[in-house]
């Protein structure tokens, strides 16, 4: 045992040493693996931790604030609306700043909206604060909502110290300006009830592309300016109507002989305010209840038009006759009181105004209850053609602003009644290139002289 032991011991110690070397090696290897794993684990976590820490630190040190407006409508249509408003607002700013521009179509807007390219920015200034807008694009695609299109967003960056003015005032300014631009550029639409069953609902008729403008409307300058002023004041009086607690609506009555420009004036009003036109055919409405339903459906920023109110409003109960002339059934129809109730009840939330325009060739036939202020706030007479109105027509149709024959025409217009439609007809018929402007004027003089003679004849025979 003694011999063996040393031997064994020798061998034993050699074996033990070998084994312990192996063990050590394994232990080192294991600890290296553990260390590596630990390092990786630690590094990963440490990295993440440090990143978070730096981000936090950076955030506290960063002097800027950022707000994002995204076109991803998965968050609701309001998101997309705000994005569109921002884009429209920036279209004005970027047209003279950005080197590359893109033209985007916006729903219901006539002209394409110019915008910057992805990655580019545009600066804006408001009350001494400079802010920066940048267009970005999400890397991830939202297949569900946009197919293969990437979501885009505008980032607004501004100094933290200006947070109050930017969040409180600037953003409101952007929204208001953007919305106003959209409204001004909006494709107007014409609706009518005449083509729908019993005239009980509104139908889209067509895009409203009437070229009439106040500039080309033949009317005395002062009167025209007064109307434009009134319309602008009305369309921008949201706060006022809110303050006085009244629905945001205004009634106009246009009266005058046929051909004096009542329909043309309505078109000019719609174009001025960018309001859609709701043309109400009263004779197609079968009952007061249907009328009420129709009027309540008119959205804000619209004009409700009832033309020839003296003819179209059947304000008594009517009897429909059969072939033998006997009364067959009573048709319920719109009554004056039903119409008045609808006008009075026309509700307007404060999101936009509603204009009512009634026209008539016979103002004297209208019930005074219909004409009173609050229902018809402004009564506008559309007269026969005066000299000032003629000059506008001559400029529109012939491009002539002054001529030696004008004096004669002025004298004749004082003596005879001619509508702007008739004057326009004479100018347009000859002004299509076949005749010179002067020949058109001479022809108009002949027409006016003839009219004068006729009118004189009428007076004598009377
Ligand atoms: N004041 C005006 N300014 C410019 N153009 C006019 C004016 N009045 C009439 N016109 C011309 O005459 C045409 C007929 O006018 P408009 O239909 O507007 O008259 P109205 O008063 O509405 O007639 P009605 O009572 O028969 O409906 C218009 O297309 C327009 O070209």
TrEMBL record:
This is Uncharacterized protein.
């Amino acid at each position: 045992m003694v011999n063996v032991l040393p031997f064994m011991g020798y061998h034993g110690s050699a074996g033990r040493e070998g084994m312990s070397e192996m063990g050590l090696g394994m232990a080192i290897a294991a600890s290296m693996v553990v260390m590596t794993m630990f390092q990786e684990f630690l590094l990963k976590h440490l990295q993440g931790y440090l990143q978070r820490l730096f981000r936090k630190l950076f955030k506290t040190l960063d002097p800027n604030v950022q707000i994002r407006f995204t076109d991803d409508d998965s968050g609701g249509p309001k998101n997309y609306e705000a994005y569109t408003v921002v884009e429209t607002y920036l279209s004005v700013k970027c047209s003279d700043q950005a080197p590359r521009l893109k033209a985007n179509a916006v729903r219901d807007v006539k002209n394409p909206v110019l915008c910057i390219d992805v990655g580019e920015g545009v600066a804006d200034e408001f009350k001494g604060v400079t802010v920066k807008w940048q267009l970005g694009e999400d890397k991830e695609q939202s297949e569900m909502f946009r197919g293969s299109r990437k979501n885009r967003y505008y980032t607004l960056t501004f100094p933290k110290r200006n947070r109050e003015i930017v969040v409180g005032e600037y953003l409101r300014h952007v929204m208001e300006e953007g919305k106003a631009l959209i409204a001004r550029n909006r494709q107007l639409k014409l609706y009518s009830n005449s083509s729908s069953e019993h005239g009980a609902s509104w139908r889209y008729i067509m895009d409203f592309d009437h070229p009439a403008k106040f500039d080309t409307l033949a009317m005395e300058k002062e009167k025209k300016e007064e109307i434009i002023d009134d319309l602008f004041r009305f369309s921008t009086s949201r706060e006022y109507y809110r303050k006085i607690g009244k629905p945001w609506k205004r009634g106009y009555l246009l009266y005058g002989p046929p051909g004096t420009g009542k329909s043309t004036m309505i078109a000019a009003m719609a174009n001025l305010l960018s309001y859609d036109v709701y043309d109400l055919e009263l004779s197609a409405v079968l009952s007061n209840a249907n009328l009420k339903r129709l009027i309540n459906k008119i959205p804000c920023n619209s004009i409700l038009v009832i033309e020839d109110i003296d003819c179209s409003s059947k304000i008594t109960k009517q009897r429909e006759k059969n072939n033998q002339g006997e009364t067959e059934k009573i048709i319920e129809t719109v009554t004056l009181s039903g119409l008045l109730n609808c006008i009075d009840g026309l509700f307007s939330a404060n999101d936009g105004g509603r204009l009512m325009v009634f026209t008539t060739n016979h103002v004297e036939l209208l019930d005074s209850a219909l004409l009173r202020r609050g229902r018809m706030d402004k009564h506008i007479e559309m007269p026969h053609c005066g000299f000032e109105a003629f000059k506008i027509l001559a400029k529109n149709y012939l491009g002539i602003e002054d001529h030696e024959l004008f004096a004669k025409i002025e004298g004749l217009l004082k003596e005879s009644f001619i509508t702007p439609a008739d004057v326009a007809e004479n100018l347009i018929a000859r002004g299509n290139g076949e005749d010179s402007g002067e020949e058109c004027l001479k022809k108009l003089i002949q027409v006016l002289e003839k009219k004068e003679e006729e009118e004189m004849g009428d007076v004598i025979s009377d």
